[in-house]
Design goal:
By secondary structure, the protein is an all-alpha fold. It is globular, with a radius of gyration of 21 Å. Helix content is 63%, strand content 0%. It is built from 13 helices and no strands.
């Protein structure tokens, strides 16, 4: 995953021997597996309508970058909604209304910009502007200035979150321990989600019930693992109800029919 690309650069601030990780990163990026996968994806893109594949940077993309960065920052600071797939930007390539909303300099844009500026200001006040910038700069690689396969993914946050932790560690002691307690409680409640794919997919539905792919995922589980076609069909129908044009739900429905 692209999330690992920024990891070697963490060692610019520590043991320089860690920069040796740039070597396997370079081997990976120039190796057969990566280059072959890149060519396959480019080939698939050539077969699709140009209006959904051409990644042309425009002024509106600045609004997208700010909103994406702010969502990553908010998720790091207030990790209440944690899941694998969320309904944020997933339809940007395909639905004009989604693209128009994300490209617009609307209230969400200004609220997002305010959050980012406030975080940088907090870093300045606490004499930790470097770490505030660390988060913003590292997460900028995943802000969709170049559209990613997954518009928003929590796994992209890992190296960037070092900056958030460094900022929070400088808070007054009472506020610090309150936050530590809250984060421990959230971590304790979230860990069971990874006990199985079933729990992971059900958590996706619980956290973001409007995202069709969460229903598709759990229908896969019931079809292929539990072999419960009734429940699989139930979740496929729920996915189609959320988005009748979602081809992934239709594919699962066809698979269910064959089984």
């Amino acid at each position: 995953t692209v999330a690992t690309i920024s990891f070697p650069f963490v060692f610019l601030l520590g043991n320089p021997l860690g920069l040796s990780l740039l070597l396997p990163l370079g081997i990976f990026l120039t190796g057969k597996r990566f280059t072959t996968g890149k060519k396959i994806r480019e080939g698939r893109g050539d077969a699709l309508p140009s209006k959904i594949t051409h990644d042309i940077f425009s002024v509106g993309r600045i609004a997208v970058m700010v909103k994406t960065t702010a969502l990553y920052l908010f998720t790091a600071l207030v990790p209440l909604k944690l899941l694998f797939f969320r309904k944020f930007g997933e339809e940007y390539r395909f639905k004009e209304e989604c693209k128009k909303e994300l490209d617009s300099f609307n209230l969400k844009f200004y609220l997002s910009l305010t959050l980012i500026i406030a975080f940088l200001a907090l870093g300045f006040v606490l004499n930790k502007l470097f770490w505030a910038g660390w988060f913003v700069i590292l997460i900028a690689a995943f802000s969709n200035y170049k559209l990613l396969g997954q518009f928003f993914a929590e796994r992209y946050m890992y190296p960037a979150c070092i900056g958030v932790v460094a900022i929070l560690a400088m808070l007054p002691e009472q506020a610090y321990w309150v936050l530590v307690g809250l984060y421990i409680m959230r971590t304790h409640s979230f860990i069971p989600v990874f006990s199985s794919n079933r729990e992971l997919y059900l958590n996706g539905i619980k956290q973001d019930p409007d995202e069709p792919i969460n229903y598709v995922n759990i229908s896969d589980w019931y079809m292929m693992v539990e072999r419960d076609m009734s429940l699989a069909g139930h979740y496929i129908q729920m996915s189609i109800a959320k988005d009748p044009a979602d081809y992934k739900a239709e594919l699962n429905f066809a698979s269910l029919w064959r089984m």
